# Entry
Amino acid sequence: MSAPILADPATPDTLQETVLEFPDNRLLIDLCGEYDRNLAEIEKRLTVQILRRGNQLAVMGEPPARQEAAELLASLYERLEAGRSVESGDIDRELRMGTPETGARDGDQLDMFPSGQVEIKTRKKLVEPRTEAQKSYVRSLFENELAFGIGPAGTGKTYLAVAVGVNMFINGHVDRIILSRPAVEAGEKLGYLPGDMKDKVDPYMQPLYDALNDFLPAKQLGKLIEEKKIEIAPLAFMRGRTLANAFVVLDEAQNATSMQMKMFLTRLGEGSRMVITGDRTQIDLPRGVASGLADAERLLNRIPNIAFNYFTAKDVVRHPLVAAIIEAYEKDAESP
# Structure
Protein backbone atom coordinates (compact mmCIF):
# COMPACT_ATOMS: atom_id res chain seq x y z
CA MET A 1 0.00 0.00 0.00
CA SER A 2 1.16 3.53 -0.77
CA ALA A 3 0.64 5.85 2.15
CA PRO A 4 0.08 9.57 1.58
CA ILE A 5 3.28 11.61 1.48
CA LEU A 6 3.91 14.82 3.40
CA ALA A 7 4.86 17.22 0.62
CA ASP A 8 7.67 19.81 0.95
CA PRO A 9 7.95 19.57 4.76
CA ALA A 10 10.69 22.21 4.91
CA THR A 11 8.94 25.03 3.06
CA PRO A 12 7.71 28.13 4.95
CA ASP A 13 4.14 27.37 3.79
CA THR A 14 4.04 24.34 6.06
CA LEU A 15 4.10 26.68 9.04
CA GLN A 16 0.51 27.53 8.04
CA GLU A 17 -0.53 24.38 6.21
CA THR A 18 0.16 20.67 5.98
CA VAL A 19 0.25 19.21 2.48
CA LEU A 20 -0.50 15.55 1.83
CA GLU A 21 0.18 13.88 -1.51
CA PHE A 22 -1.91 10.83 -2.46
CA PRO A 23 -0.47 8.40 -5.05
CA ASP A 24 -3.81 7.02 -6.33
CA ASN A 25 -6.06 9.75 -7.69
CA ARG A 26 -9.07 7.42 -7.87
CA LEU A 27 -8.85 6.72 -4.16
CA LEU A 28 -8.39 10.42 -3.53
CA ILE A 29 -11.73 11.06 -5.25
CA ASP A 30 -13.39 8.54 -2.90
CA LEU A 31 -11.61 10.12 0.05
CA CYS A 32 -13.00 13.55 -0.79
CA GLY A 33 -16.50 12.14 -1.28
CA GLU A 34 -19.28 13.24 -3.60
CA TYR A 35 -19.11 17.03 -3.99
CA ASP A 36 -16.25 16.94 -1.42
CA ARG A 37 -18.72 16.19 1.36
CA ASN A 38 -16.17 14.17 3.35
CA LEU A 39 -13.74 17.07 3.30
CA ALA A 40 -16.53 19.44 4.30
CA GLU A 41 -17.38 17.27 7.31
CA ILE A 42 -13.75 17.12 8.43
CA GLU A 43 -13.45 20.90 8.03
CA LYS A 44 -16.53 21.41 10.19
CA ARG A 45 -15.56 18.93 12.89
CA LEU A 46 -11.94 20.07 13.25
CA THR A 47 -12.22 23.77 12.31
CA VAL A 48 -9.73 23.54 9.46
CA GLN A 49 -9.73 24.35 5.76
CA ILE A 50 -8.82 21.69 3.19
CA LEU A 51 -7.90 22.60 -0.38
CA ARG A 52 -7.39 20.12 -3.20
CA ARG A 53 -4.50 20.70 -5.60
CA GLY A 54 -4.25 17.90 -8.13
CA ASN A 55 -3.35 14.79 -6.16
CA GLN A 56 -2.55 16.83 -3.04
CA LEU A 57 -4.66 18.03 -0.11
CA ALA A 58 -3.53 21.12 1.77
CA VAL A 59 -4.80 21.36 5.34
CA MET A 60 -4.83 24.84 6.89
CA GLY A 61 -5.61 25.79 10.45
CA GLU A 62 -4.20 25.85 13.97
CA PRO A 63 -1.31 23.33 14.38
CA PRO A 64 -3.11 20.79 16.65
CA ALA A 65 -6.24 20.69 14.50
CA ARG A 66 -4.17 20.62 11.31
CA GLN A 67 -2.17 17.65 12.58
CA GLU A 68 -5.30 15.77 13.61
CA ALA A 69 -6.92 16.42 10.22
CA ALA A 70 -3.81 15.21 8.38
CA GLU A 71 -3.69 12.01 10.46
CA LEU A 72 -7.40 11.48 9.87
CA LEU A 73 -7.04 11.88 6.09
CA ALA A 74 -4.11 9.46 6.06
CA SER A 75 -6.06 6.89 8.08
CA LEU A 76 -9.13 7.15 5.84
CA TYR A 77 -6.94 6.80 2.73
CA GLU A 78 -5.42 3.61 4.17
CA ARG A 79 -8.96 2.35 4.71
CA LEU A 80 -9.69 2.92 1.02
CA GLU A 81 -6.48 1.14 0.04
CA ALA A 82 -7.71 -1.87 2.03
CA GLY A 83 -10.82 -1.98 -0.18
CA ARG A 84 -13.25 -0.41 2.28
CA SER A 85 -15.52 2.56 1.79
CA VAL A 86 -15.39 5.91 3.55
CA GLU A 87 -18.68 7.36 4.72
CA SER A 88 -19.79 9.86 7.34
CA GLY A 89 -19.92 7.19 10.03
CA ASP A 90 -16.34 6.17 9.29
CA ILE A 91 -15.16 9.75 9.74
CA ASP A 92 -17.07 9.99 13.02
CA ARG A 93 -15.55 6.72 14.26
CA GLU A 94 -12.00 7.81 13.41
CA LEU A 95 -12.49 11.12 15.18
CA ARG A 96 -13.87 9.44 18.28
CA MET A 97 -11.49 6.48 18.46
CA GLY A 98 -8.35 7.44 16.56
CA THR A 99 -7.07 10.07 18.97
CA PRO A 100 -3.91 9.55 21.06
CA GLU A 101 -5.98 9.83 24.27
CA THR A 102 -8.01 6.69 23.53
CA GLY A 103 -5.11 4.75 22.04
CA ALA A 104 -7.62 3.04 19.79
CA ARG A 105 -5.16 2.53 16.96
CA ASP A 106 -3.01 0.42 19.23
CA GLY A 107 -6.10 -1.85 19.78
CA ASP A 108 -6.00 -4.99 21.89
CA GLN A 109 -5.73 -8.30 20.07
CA LEU A 110 -8.66 -10.70 20.35
CA ASP A 111 -8.97 -14.23 19.04
CA MET A 112 -12.14 -13.35 17.14
CA PHE A 113 -10.56 -10.11 15.91
CA PRO A 114 -6.98 -11.16 15.08
CA SER A 115 -6.19 -7.87 13.31
CA GLY A 116 -7.22 -5.83 16.36
CA GLN A 117 -10.00 -4.25 14.27
CA VAL A 118 -13.35 -4.90 15.96
CA GLU A 119 -15.98 -5.40 13.27
CA ILE A 120 -19.20 -7.31 12.68
CA LYS A 121 -19.86 -8.85 9.27
CA THR A 122 -23.48 -9.27 8.19
CA ARG A 123 -25.09 -10.16 4.87
CA LYS A 124 -25.62 -6.52 3.83
CA LYS A 125 -22.92 -4.48 5.54
CA LEU A 126 -19.85 -4.39 7.73
CA VAL A 127 -20.61 -2.85 11.12
CA GLU A 128 -17.81 -1.19 13.09
CA PRO A 129 -18.09 0.33 16.58
CA ARG A 130 -17.73 4.11 16.61
CA THR A 131 -16.75 4.68 20.27
CA GLU A 132 -14.57 2.90 22.81
CA ALA A 133 -17.66 1.93 24.83
CA GLN A 134 -19.23 0.40 21.72
CA LYS A 135 -15.99 -1.45 20.98
CA SER A 136 -15.90 -2.93 24.49
CA TYR A 137 -19.59 -3.80 24.22
CA VAL A 138 -19.11 -5.76 20.97
CA ARG A 139 -16.18 -7.64 22.51
CA SER A 140 -18.36 -8.42 25.52
CA LEU A 141 -21.17 -9.80 23.36
CA PHE A 142 -18.79 -12.24 21.66
CA GLU A 143 -17.05 -13.25 24.88
CA ASN A 144 -19.94 -13.64 27.35
CA GLU A 145 -23.04 -15.80 27.41
CA LEU A 146 -24.99 -13.08 29.22
CA ALA A 147 -24.31 -9.37 28.74
CA PHE A 148 -26.09 -6.13 29.58
CA GLY A 149 -25.94 -2.88 27.61
CA ILE A 150 -27.19 0.06 29.65
CA GLY A 151 -27.27 3.70 28.57
CA PRO A 152 -29.19 6.46 26.82
CA ALA A 153 -30.96 6.31 23.48
CA GLY A 154 -28.86 6.49 20.32
CA THR A 155 -25.77 4.72 21.67
CA GLY A 156 -26.16 1.62 19.48
CA LYS A 157 -27.03 -0.86 22.25
CA THR A 158 -29.75 -2.70 20.32
CA TYR A 159 -28.31 -2.12 16.87
CA LEU A 160 -24.94 -3.69 17.73
CA ALA A 161 -26.58 -6.55 19.64
CA VAL A 162 -28.72 -7.45 16.63
CA ALA A 163 -25.67 -7.16 14.35
CA VAL A 164 -23.71 -9.59 16.54
CA GLY A 165 -26.72 -11.92 16.58
CA VAL A 166 -26.90 -11.93 12.78
CA ASN A 167 -23.14 -12.51 12.57
CA MET A 168 -23.28 -15.47 14.94
CA PHE A 169 -26.28 -16.90 13.08
CA ILE A 170 -24.79 -16.72 9.58
CA ASN A 171 -21.53 -18.21 10.90
CA GLY A 172 -23.36 -21.17 12.43
CA HIS A 173 -22.67 -20.40 16.10
CA VAL A 174 -26.41 -20.30 16.91
CA ASP A 175 -29.43 -21.85 15.20
CA ARG A 176 -31.81 -18.94 15.58
CA ILE A 177 -32.24 -15.34 16.69
CA ILE A 178 -34.91 -14.33 19.20
CA LEU A 179 -35.64 -10.64 19.73
CA SER A 180 -38.03 -9.47 22.41
CA ARG A 181 -39.39 -6.30 24.00
CA PRO A 182 -41.94 -5.53 26.71
CA ALA A 183 -45.12 -4.29 25.00
CA VAL A 184 -45.35 -1.14 27.11
CA GLU A 185 -46.76 2.13 25.79
CA ALA A 186 -44.41 5.10 26.09
CA GLY A 187 -46.43 7.36 28.34
CA GLU A 188 -49.61 7.46 26.27
CA LYS A 189 -52.61 5.21 25.84
CA LEU A 190 -52.97 3.96 22.28
CA GLY A 191 -56.24 2.14 22.81
CA TYR A 192 -57.11 -1.17 21.20
CA LEU A 193 -55.15 -1.87 18.04
CA PRO A 194 -56.88 -3.50 15.05
CA GLY A 195 -55.87 -6.79 13.43
CA ASP A 196 -54.62 -10.17 14.62
CA MET A 197 -52.00 -10.72 17.32
CA LYS A 198 -49.08 -9.98 14.96
CA ASP A 199 -50.71 -6.70 13.86
CA LYS A 200 -51.18 -5.69 17.48
CA VAL A 201 -47.62 -6.32 18.66
CA ASP A 202 -45.65 -5.34 15.53
CA PRO A 203 -45.73 -1.58 16.30
CA TYR A 204 -43.88 -2.28 19.54
CA MET A 205 -41.35 -4.49 17.74
CA GLN A 206 -40.67 -2.14 14.78
CA PRO A 207 -37.20 -0.97 15.97
CA LEU A 208 -36.08 -4.61 15.94
CA TYR A 209 -37.38 -5.11 12.39
CA ASP A 210 -35.54 -1.92 11.37
CA ALA A 211 -32.24 -3.25 12.70
CA LEU A 212 -32.67 -6.62 10.98
CA ASN A 213 -33.47 -4.92 7.67
CA ASP A 214 -30.08 -3.21 7.88
CA PHE A 215 -28.24 -6.53 8.09
CA LEU A 216 -30.20 -9.03 5.99
CA PRO A 217 -31.71 -8.88 2.48
CA ALA A 218 -35.49 -8.48 2.61
CA LYS A 219 -36.28 -11.84 0.95
CA GLN A 220 -33.90 -13.75 3.19
CA LEU A 221 -35.22 -11.99 6.29
CA GLY A 222 -38.82 -12.79 5.34
CA LYS A 223 -37.95 -16.45 4.78
CA LEU A 224 -36.07 -16.73 8.09
CA ILE A 225 -39.00 -15.20 9.97
CA GLU A 226 -41.40 -17.56 8.22
CA GLU A 227 -39.22 -20.55 9.16
CA LYS A 228 -38.98 -19.32 12.78
CA LYS A 229 -35.21 -19.00 12.46
CA ILE A 230 -35.74 -15.40 13.52
CA GLU A 231 -38.46 -14.65 16.07
CA ILE A 232 -39.63 -11.23 17.18
CA ALA A 233 -42.06 -11.43 20.06
CA PRO A 234 -43.27 -9.53 23.13
CA LEU A 235 -41.64 -10.42 26.44
CA ALA A 236 -44.86 -12.01 27.73
CA PHE A 237 -44.53 -14.72 25.04
CA MET A 238 -41.24 -15.96 26.54
CA ARG A 239 -42.82 -17.61 29.59
CA GLY A 240 -42.42 -21.39 29.75
CA ARG A 241 -39.79 -21.59 27.01
CA THR A 242 -36.20 -22.84 27.13
CA LEU A 243 -34.13 -20.94 24.57
CA ALA A 244 -31.33 -23.28 23.47
CA ASN A 245 -28.77 -22.64 20.70
CA ALA A 246 -30.16 -19.15 20.19
CA PHE A 247 -28.97 -15.55 20.26
CA VAL A 248 -31.54 -13.80 22.42
CA VAL A 249 -31.96 -10.03 22.82
CA LEU A 250 -34.27 -8.31 25.30
CA ASP A 251 -34.62 -4.67 24.26
CA GLU A 252 -36.08 -1.81 26.37
CA ALA A 253 -35.46 -3.95 29.46
CA GLN A 254 -36.10 -0.99 31.78
CA ASN A 255 -39.81 -1.61 31.06
CA ALA A 256 -39.71 -5.20 32.27
CA THR A 257 -40.95 -5.82 35.80
CA SER A 258 -38.77 -7.68 38.29
CA MET A 259 -40.79 -10.88 37.78
CA GLN A 260 -40.59 -10.56 34.00
CA MET A 261 -36.83 -10.02 34.13
CA LYS A 262 -36.33 -13.10 36.32
CA MET A 263 -38.54 -15.12 33.98
CA PHE A 264 -36.60 -13.97 30.93
CA LEU A 265 -33.13 -14.53 32.38
CA THR A 266 -34.03 -18.07 33.40
CA ARG A 267 -34.97 -18.94 29.79
CA LEU A 268 -31.26 -19.19 28.90
CA GLY A 269 -30.50 -22.66 27.51
CA GLU A 270 -27.48 -24.61 26.33
CA GLY A 271 -25.47 -23.02 23.53
CA SER A 272 -27.30 -19.70 23.78
CA ARG A 273 -26.21 -16.08 24.18
CA MET A 274 -28.39 -13.47 25.83
CA VAL A 275 -28.18 -9.68 25.65
CA ILE A 276 -30.24 -7.30 27.79
CA THR A 277 -30.39 -3.64 26.70
CA GLY A 278 -32.09 -0.72 28.39
CA ASP A 279 -32.12 2.94 29.38
CA ARG A 280 -32.74 3.64 33.06
CA THR A 281 -33.99 7.16 32.25
CA GLN A 282 -36.89 5.98 30.05
CA ILE A 283 -38.98 3.78 32.35
CA ASP A 284 -42.62 3.65 31.21
CA LEU A 285 -43.89 1.29 33.91
CA PRO A 286 -46.80 2.40 36.12
CA ARG A 287 -45.88 4.43 39.18
CA GLY A 288 -44.71 2.21 42.02
CA VAL A 289 -43.71 -0.74 39.79
CA ALA A 290 -39.99 -1.49 40.10
CA SER A 291 -37.89 -1.86 36.95
CA GLY A 292 -36.50 -5.34 36.44
CA LEU A 293 -33.38 -3.84 34.86
CA ALA A 294 -32.49 -2.03 38.09
CA ASP A 295 -33.03 -5.22 40.09
CA ALA A 296 -30.87 -7.23 37.70
CA GLU A 297 -28.03 -4.71 38.04
CA ARG A 298 -28.22 -4.89 41.81
CA LEU A 299 -28.45 -8.66 42.07
CA LEU A 300 -26.20 -9.88 39.25
CA ASN A 301 -23.31 -7.44 39.02
CA ARG A 302 -20.93 -9.68 41.00
CA ILE A 303 -21.68 -12.95 39.24
CA PRO A 304 -18.78 -14.11 37.03
CA ASN A 305 -19.36 -14.35 33.28
CA ILE A 306 -22.15 -11.78 33.33
CA ALA A 307 -20.93 -8.56 31.71
CA PHE A 308 -22.35 -5.08 32.33
CA ASN A 309 -21.55 -2.47 29.69
CA TYR A 310 -22.41 1.20 30.22
CA PHE A 311 -22.87 4.06 27.76
CA THR A 312 -23.10 7.82 28.24
CA ALA A 313 -24.15 10.78 26.11
CA LYS A 314 -20.62 10.76 24.65
CA ASP A 315 -21.46 7.46 22.92
CA VAL A 316 -24.53 8.78 21.09
CA VAL A 317 -24.08 8.19 17.36
CA ARG A 318 -27.30 9.75 16.13
CA HIS A 319 -27.63 13.45 15.31
CA PRO A 320 -25.23 15.54 17.47
CA LEU A 321 -28.23 17.33 18.97
CA VAL A 322 -29.34 14.04 20.55
CA ALA A 323 -26.21 13.97 22.71
CA ALA A 324 -26.76 17.60 23.73
CA ILE A 325 -30.40 16.87 24.63
CA ILE A 326 -29.43 13.85 26.74
CA GLU A 327 -26.73 15.82 28.55
CA ALA A 328 -29.21 18.62 29.33
CA TYR A 329 -31.67 16.17 30.87
CA GLU A 330 -28.88 14.44 32.83
CA LYS A 331 -27.70 17.76 34.29
CA ASP A 332 -31.25 18.69 35.24
CA ALA A 333 -31.73 15.35 37.00
CA GLU A 334 -28.50 15.85 38.97
CA SER A 335 -29.34 19.39 40.09
CA PRO A 336 -30.92 19.75 43.57
